[in-house]
Write a structure and sequence with these properties.
Helix content is 67%, strand content 0%. By secondary structure, it is mainly α. It has a domain of 52 residues. This is HAT C-terminal dimerisation domain-containing protein.
Amino acid sequence: MLKRYVAIRGFVYQLNDRTILSLLPTDEQDKDIDILLGILGELESGTKDLQAEDSTILARATSSTRRSCYTQMRPSNPSDKPLTLAERAKKRKKTSHEEFNYLDCRFLRPTSNMCERFFSLAKLALTDHRRAMTPQNFEQQMFLKVNNWLWYVSDLVKAMSK
């Protein structure tokens, strides 16, 4: 909303309408708005960087923790004598089967609030009486419900009167 105001600020002052000019912020408040928009841009770029696919802050922390735990839990060799060739091969075979396979979660995106709201709306819309509805009708009704800001009841009355 502030971005829109900054974009049309010059045009609003050109209107010279007293009712509108009395509602506009002062010059000091305009400067504060510009500063806040600058800070908001920095905050937005920072959050985008943290949510990027190639951001591996959590992955680095978990892998370093996993490595340190693994080295602490590794059994030490009770004897000081060197292992024979057969013992080394047997030990290598044992450790090769104990590899940890973790799922790389960097590609998973967080579920947005809009999707969660949509699913809860769909859950509310699918009552026992409406379960026999065709998928096309359900899709159209959910589209209209989610995008209710695009149409009004007067639009519906006009469409039905035609």
